[in-house]
Write a structure and sequence with these properties.
A 12-stranded mixed beta sheet has the order 7-8-9-6-5-4-3-2-1-10-11-12. It is 28% helix and 17% strand. Strand 1, helix 1 and strand 2 form a beta-alpha-beta unit. With 329 residues, the chain is of the alpha/beta class. The protein binds S-adenosylmethionine and iron/sulfur cluster.
Length: 329
Amino acid sequence: MLLDNHGRKINYLRLAVTDRCNLRCFYCMPEEGLNWLSRTELMSYDEMLQICSLLVKMGIDKIRITGGEPFVRKDIMPFLTALSKLYGLNELTITTNGVLTAPYVKELKAIGVKSVNLSLDTLDANRFFAITSRDEFANVMATLDELLKYNIEVKINAVVMDGKNVQDIMPLVELTKNLPVSVRFIEEMPFNGDAHIYNGLKWDHVRILEEIKKHYPELKKLDDPLFSTSHNYQVAAYAGTVGIIAAYSRTFCGTCNRIRITPVGELKTCLYDGGILNIKDMIRRGDSVDMLTKTMMDAFGTRAKDGWEAEGLRPANNSVHESMATIGG
Ligand code: SAM
Ligand code: SF4
């Protein structure tokens, strides 16, 4: 079992396969997009498979594929299929915006993907356009239908933004009345690629909960699964559940079991750190498996105790304003 220097188990990798995206969510990246990474800067599928295979041997048993948008990267399915065959990997999951995903759902089911996180901040097509700058609401809803049709567990991620989608909180909760989905409201974080100035958190987890309780006073607290980042609730007799993720307030660091690898191969042992080491560069210069293993073990052994410490350790010229598309969420 992989343990960090604070005794926390590490068994979960979030791998971002690209920084590119077909939406422009206003909390994530500017309207004009990012300075997209070149093909040579990106890890190749072979490199990603090599890293995942090593990490699974070291103790990782859950991998989430994210991005940017994973389905804009060419030939993603053969890569996902190869990953799904790694001996020792118990869970392969995906975070997607759902724009291109519907046609792949049947194949995802076939390779053993049991759970998908779908990002959806509103159930109103006009507000969807206002938030993402793209007219793709119908395609995202088609992905939701398809996921439910194939009995894949769905977690809907909704970032709560002052002045943008607060009116969507209740309709999203109401979605759980008949659908067996988990709707998770996420605090907005500063990782927006300078799309706008982050003026502090307006809707923290306490305020989001109060807002929901105003309309659903009978909201029931559920037991949170081990390592859960969300505080979970249910409206009595509803099919689905509601979660609140204190992504900015960082209430979950004490049980954090996750590491991240960015599209350029940077290992992050905390969402808020500035990158600890570059695994792709090590592979490209021919470092041995032993060297890779040792270097990563050293990184796990010097992990920040929480997101506040990790953020504080970033150099002054490297504050948290990169786009979430270059981290993976
Ligand atoms: N493109 C895919 C998607 O949107 O699902 C995967 C990558 S996206 C970066 C992963 C998650 O990060 C999404 O659920 C998105 O809502 C969330 N996210 C992006 N920027 C954020 C921010 N500034 N604050 C909070 N969550 C953010
Ligand atoms: Fe794209 Fe996901 Fe970022 Fe939205 S949150 S711009 S869908 S990477």
